């Protein structure tokens, strides 16, 4: 049996308690055995006798974060024996590419479409078409607008995710100097929301000596994220720090700063994948960073998909379901829609990065 480690399920209460002192959970739970290793159950069938089909469309290919998310989604559906899993990833992180995949899923008469949206609004017509055809739709990781889905699976509180990254960089640079943000695409709902919270945090007078000079977009593409980092360094020779709220941007910026020998001159923090960032946490380019478990984002999405498919939940506030090893989850209202919250971001630093780099 394939041996992939996973996060021990933590109750939200435990995480919040652990995080209340540090602003974020400082120590992730201990890694343990594989998700989805329970004996395979027989797939459930729909009323017409066909196996239920669960589609996951991630943002794009070539991003290990998305692969981990897909791994968790697949593990959830398979351990419950709920039906067929169809994993899709467009070559580019665009709405157009996802629209085409959603049209295909509608034609295949799938049971559920789960997706990390590449645009909050552009997918609305095609996702409404899917829901009108009886397909259950949910977003995870990156939300689509509330008219386009029944519920959203949120990795962590966007306000905390945004604010904690500014607090971190301020501590790293002594509260003084120019900073920049290296984001994913300009349409990504998750990054855009986190950046809004960063900007709100920066309004606090305690950051009066810090200046956000630019938000650059690497589009979650390695090459573009690399060239955008280089462009930032060139345009702002006094730059003191980069916040990258995307795992792709983090890894690219970590490499650029390392290759240019900028350790201790320009610091990096943000949302990084331990497997990609261990090197840069160890060499000091990134003193510490944050993330949640992307396998769990997918796994929770998988259980939410099954609960929508069998009618346990409709996406309404107060609906409850059991998400496998993550335990009971309740749907809450957030903004003008509803969502299911995974937990709180973890802090990764020299003391725990070795333990986590082989997990995700
Ligand atoms: C990238 C993607 C993903 C985001 C993480 C933090 O992998 O943009 O959507 O949640 O970074």
Report on the structure:
With 360 residues, the chain is an alpha/beta fold. It has two domains: 203 residues, Rossmann fold, CATH 3.40.50.2300; 134 residues, Response regulator (Rossmann fold), CATH 3.40.50.2300. Helices cover 38% and strands 21% of the residues. It is built from eleven helices and 17 strands. A seven-stranded mixed β-sheet has the order 4-3-5-6-7-16-15, sandwiched between helices. A four-stranded parallel β-sheet has the order 9-8-10-11, sandwiched between helices. Strands 1-2 form a two-stranded antiparallel ribbon. Helix 2 links the parallel strand 3 and strand 4. The radius of gyration is 20 Å and the shape is elongated. The protein starts with 5 loop residues before the first strand and ends with a helix. The chain binds alpha-L-rhamnopyranose. Alpha-L-rhamnopyranose binds next to helix 8.
List the helices and strands and how they pair.
Elements: E1 6-7, H1 12-19, E2 31-32, E3 53-57, H2 64-80, E4 84-88, H3 95-107, E5 112-115, H4 124-132, E6 136-140, E7 151-156, H5 158-173, E8 177-183, H6 189-202, E9 210-217, H7 222-235, E10 239-244, H8 247-259, E11 267-270, H9 274-282, E12 289-291, H10 294-309, E13 320-322, E14 328-330, E15 332-334, E16 337-343, E17 346-348, H11 350-356
Helix pairs in contact: 2-10, 3-4, 5-6, 7-8, 9-11
Alpha-L-rhamnopyranose binds at residues 59, 63, 65, 116, 141-142, 184, 190, 220, 246-248, 271.
């Amino acid at each position: 049996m394939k041996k992939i480690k996973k996060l021990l399920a933590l109750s939200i209460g435990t995480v919040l308690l652990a995080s209340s002192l540090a602003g974020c959970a400082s120590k992730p739970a201990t890694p343990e055995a594989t998700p989805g290793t329970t004996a395979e159950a027989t797939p459930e069938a729909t009323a017409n006798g066909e196996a239920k089909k669960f589609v996951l469309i991630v943002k794009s290919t070539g991003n290990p974060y998305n692969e981990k998310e897909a791994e968790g989604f697949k593990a959830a559906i398979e351990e419950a024996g709920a039906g067929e899993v169809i994993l899709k990833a467009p070559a580019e992180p665009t709405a157009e590419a996802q629209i085409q995949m959603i049209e295909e899923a509608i034609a295949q008469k799938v049971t559920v479409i789960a997706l990390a949206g590449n645009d909050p609004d552009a997918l609305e017509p095609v996702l409404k078409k899917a829901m009108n055809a009886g397909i259950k739709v949910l977003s995870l990781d990156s939300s689509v607008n509330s008219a386009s889905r029944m519920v959203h699976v949120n990795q962590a509180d966007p306000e905390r995710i945004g604010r904690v990254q500014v607090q971190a960089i301020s501590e790293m640079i002594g509260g003084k100097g120019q900073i920049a943000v290296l984001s994913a695409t300009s349409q990504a709902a998750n990054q855009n929301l986190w950046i809004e919270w960063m900007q709100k945090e920066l309004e606090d007078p305690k950051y009066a000596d810090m200046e956000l000079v630019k938000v650059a977009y690497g589009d979650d593409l390695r090459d573009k994220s690399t060239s955008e980092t280089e462009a930032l360094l060139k345009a702002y020779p006094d730059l003191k720090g980069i916040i990258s709220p995307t795992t792709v941007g983090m890894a690219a910026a970590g490499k650029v700063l390392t290759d240019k020998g900028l350790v201790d001159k320009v610091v990096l923090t943000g949302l990084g994948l331990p497997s990609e960032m261990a090197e840069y946490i160890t060499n000091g380019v990134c003193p510490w960073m944050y993330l949640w478990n992307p396998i769990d984002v997918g796994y929770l999405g998988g259980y939410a998909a099954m609960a929508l498919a069998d009618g346990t939940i409709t996406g309404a506030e107060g609906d409850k379901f059991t998400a496998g090893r993550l335990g009971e989850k309740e749907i809450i209202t957030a903004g003008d829609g509803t969502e299911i919250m995974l937990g709180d971001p973890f802090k990764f630093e020299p003391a725990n990065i070795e333990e986590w780099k082989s997990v995700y």
